[in-house]
UniProtKB/TrEMBL annotation:
PANTHER family: OXIDATIVE STRESS-INDUCED GROWTH INHIBITOR 2 (PTHR15192:SF4), PROTEIN CBG05349 (PTHR15192). It comes from Rattus norvegicus. This is Oxidative stress induced growth inhibitor family member 2. InterPro entries: FAD/NAD-bd_sf, OSGIN1/2. SUPFAM superfamilies: FAD/NAD(P)-binding domain. It comes from the Eukaryota.
């Protein structure tokens, strides 16, 4: 089951200046004169402790060999290094949650179930049995279960301690790599810094390191429980370091393809290969599924790209959904005065382009990011036209789920949405004017836009800018069909709310693709407190399958070979 990692460097580039240190040992920067086999041999030396002694005896992989010939395979590759990927790496590294000796969960039925197997880690228990009957703000039962174990009664306003304690059991670790475009923390490093997080700081924390303990060492004054995004980003980066996970993380990596390899059933000596979808459909019974091939490149010092290729038994998608902002798909949306993100809007304000303008800014959307944009414009004395398609009384509006005392700024926006709506009778625009149940028909080159009400009434307004904040889609271009085939509706792009990846509720394995897992926003868990359940589900699944393989190996009378 185990082996290593193959980096294919057909295109050379400068190597990083600083050596990487792992477990107190320095990894060399390889010179261009070394063969791929020598590089691989050095990597095997480093990975051997984790992957077992049999790896060291594996044949070297030369530049000229076919990728499909290689038996070098990692048990898991995680794509995305945000909180989902970090938490999964933590658990795959051997950290196991147990019921604390003195802990009593406020849910008596759940506590009784936990007592039945107190000696076992949660990873080794029946998650479906434990999750039964629980309710929460996630549609994924394991997410609700893990959240209530980590934050009992959080939805009732309590800040109760976790009933779990964590043990590092290195013999349970599963070798893996986490690939990310930037530093550990993912999209948190790119978020607008002027806004508070929607969640409390302790809801953003990952297992084993209390956020309050960490943040108290970074700043003296802790006013309230909500924090800045850049603080969360620094916490996640520190978490990877302090938990000893750095050896599993690779930064500046960009994935270009993830494809399944197949083998011809009739030929035991045949090579694994990539089969076209059409050929596979015509001769489906002829091929058996093998491992995953992950291709991409890593940016190194000087900006050059070093291609790589990895093989994995399993792949976990933890990319989040912030890669591609959603578009209205209307005429003129490509004009330069139309923005699709808060950073773009913030940059326009900071540059002074919008200061002192009489014409309003159009903000489209009814979520929290749109509310942030309203606050940003309002605080900079920029008049706002706020357009959204829902009624202000719509119970699904996010503002109705937020307590007023904890989120006063968002309720200020919601109050304006309700009380300062446009009236055709007065035809007057104030500093803020809402347009409920309206949509944008088009943008014009003279910076005008046409709005239409639900009744069909059209109105034209002159703008200084437009900001479209109606959600985002993940970039799954490395998968076939852009990953659409994995969704509940295969004809639509994957999105957190409208079309999440369809998964098994307890293992997080994609329903339509074996050995491919998805977690976090991709499966509808947009809050950090719930995405941690995905790590539990995936780890439980891999551990269960590992035990089955070992059992079969013993039954067959295996010797020293690698199972």
């Amino acid at each position: 089951m185990v082996c290593g990692i193959l980096w294919v460097t057909a295109m050379r580039g400068p190597k990083p200046n600083a050596p990487e240190t792992v477990r107190g040992r320095e990894l060399r920067n390889y010179s261009d004169t070394e063969t791929e086999g020598e590089i691989f041999n050095s990597l095997v030396q480093y990975l051997g402790d984790n992957l077992g002694p049999k790896v060291k005896g594996m044949p070297l992989v030369e530049e000229t060999s076919l990728l499909e010939d290689s038996s070098v395979t990692l048990p898991m590759v995680i794509i995305g290094n945000g909180p989902s990927g970090i938490c999964l790496s933590y658990m795959l590294s051997g950290y196991r949650p147990y019921l604390s000796s003195e802990a009593i969960h406020p849910n008596a039925i759940l506590h009784s179930k936990l007592e039945e197997a107190r000696h076992l880690s949660i990873v080794d228990q029946d998650l479906e049995y434990l999750s039964e009957g629980l309710e929460g703000r996630s549609s994924n039962p394991v997410a609700v279960l893990f959240d209530t174990l980590l934050h009992p009664d959080a939805d009732f306003g309590y800040d109760s301690p976790s009933i779990l304690h964590w043990k590092l059991e290195q013999h349970h670790s599963i070798p893996h790599l986490v690939l990310g475009k930037g530093p550990p923390g993912g999209a948190w490093h790119n978020m607008e810094g002027s806004m508070l997080t929607i969640s409390f700081g302790n809801w953003m924390e990952l297992p084993g390191l209390k956020f309050k303990d960490w943040i108290s060492s970074k700043r003296r004054n802790l006013k309230g429980d909500r924090v800045m995004p850049e603080e969360i980003a620094r916490y996640y980066k520190h978490y990877v370091k302090v938990m000893g996970l750095q050896k599993n993380f690779r930064e500046n990596t960009y994935i270009t393809s993830v494809s399944r390899l197949y083998r011809d059933q009739g030929d035991n000596g045949s090579q694994d290969r990539d089969i076209s979808a059409k050929h596979l459909q015509n001769q489906k019974s002829k091929f058996i599924k093998r491992n995953w091939e992950i291709r991409g490149y890593q940016r190194v010092a000087g900006g050059s790209h070093v291609p790589f290729c990895l093989f994995a038994e399993n792949v976990a998608l933890a990319t989040g959904t912030l890669d591609s902002p959603a578009h209205l798909e209307v005429e003129g949306e490509e004009f330069p005065f139309v923005f699709h993100s808060m950073p773009e809007f913030g940059a326009a304000i900071n540059s002074g382009k919008l200061c002192g303008r009489v014409d309003p800014v159009l903000i489209v959307g009814s979520g929290l990011t749109a509310a942030d944009a309203v606050l940003c414009a309002y605080n900079n004395n920029i008049p706002v036209i706020h357009v959204f398609r829902r009624r202000v009384t719509d119970p699904s509006l996010i503002f109705k789920q937020l307590p007023k005392k904890l989120y006063p700024e968002y309720h200020k926006v919601y109050h304006m949405m309700c009380t300062q709506s446009y009236s055709a009778d007065s035809d007057h625009l104030s500093d803020y004017t809402s347009f409920p149940e309206h949509r944008v028909l088009s943008f014009k080159s003279d910076m005008k836009c046409i709005l239409q009400s639900v009744s069909g009434l059209k109105k034209i307004f002159k703008l200084s800018a437009a900001v479209i904040l109606i959600g985002s889609h993940p970039n799954l271009s490395f998968l076939k069909e852009q990953g659409c085939y994995l969704g509940r509706n295969s004809s639509q792009p994957i999105s957190c709310k409208g079309n999440p990846v369809e998964i098994d509720a307890y293992t997080y394995e994609c329903v339509k693709e074996a050995n491919l897992f998805a977690l976090g926003p991709l499966v509808g868990d947009n809050f950090v407190r719930f995405l941690k359940g995905g790590a539990l589900g995936v780890t439980r699944c891999l551990v269960t399958r590992q035990k089955k393989k070992q059992h079969l190996f013993v039954q067959r009378g295996g010797g020293d070979g690698v199972a």
